Amino acid sequence: MGDFKVIETQEEFDKAIQSRLKQKDRELADKYKDYLSPDDVTALKADFDKQLQDANKLVKETQDKLSTFDETVSNLTKRAEAAEKQVLKNRVAYENKLPIELSERLIGNTEEELKADAEKLSGIIKPNNAPPLYTGTQTSQSGNTLEAGMAEVLASINAQFANQ
What we know:
Number of strands: 0
Strand content: under 5%
Number of domains: 1
Shape: rod-shaped
Structural class: mainly alpha
Helix content: 55-70%
């Protein structure tokens, strides 16, 4: 206790507490070493904000693609249903011996409704008997083939010229 020295100037005071301040700084640094500094927090927040913007942009692009896909699926489904209905109408018209052009006029949503409408329509419209297909030889009204008929005409013309 006899070594006590009275501090009389500011420089002496600063010098005396310097070691104590350094020790306190070390204690605070150790205490808060796992904490982020305000600059680190600001940088981290900016990074998270950028990631959030990128994620939101990706979500919007994905939603736009999804809505486009939904629209495409909807359109293709409508087209497929229309094609299936037309095939069904054509089949019902064929089964009831109606011209294929009249299949558009059939009314109904189910096969039974279409069949009932086709039966009514086939009762009104009789099937058109088409002429027979060309078989390669045609017969004249007398039953002869066309070539034989032409030969007869040629022979009669020759006979008339021979008689003159």
